[in-house]
Amino acid sequence: MPRVRAVVLCIAIVLITASFGCGASESVGSPSATPASVEGRIDPSTIKPNTPYTIGFSSLRENRAPFTGHAESGFDVTVVAADWMSLTTYGNPQPFIEFYGPAGVTTTGELRITAGGAPFWLDGIDFYSSTTRIPYVIEGFLNSEQMFSVIDVIGNTFGAFARRSNPNADVPVQEVRIRLSNPSATCCSNPMGVDNIVVSR
Amino acid sequence: MRTRFAWLGLSLLLGCNDTPTSPSAHFELALSPSAVVAGAASVGTVTLRGRAVQAIRINLSSSDAVASVPPSVLVPAATGTVEFTVKTRLVAADTVARISAQADGTTQEVALQVVAPIARPATLDRLALDAVVVRGGQDLQGTVWLTAAAPAGGLAVKLRSSNAVATVAATLLIPAGATSEAFTLGTRRVTLETQLEITATYSDQIKTVPLRVIPIEGS
Question: Testing the interface with B: which of A3, A4, A5, A14 to mutate, by most B Cβ within 10 A?
Answer without folding.
Answer: A14
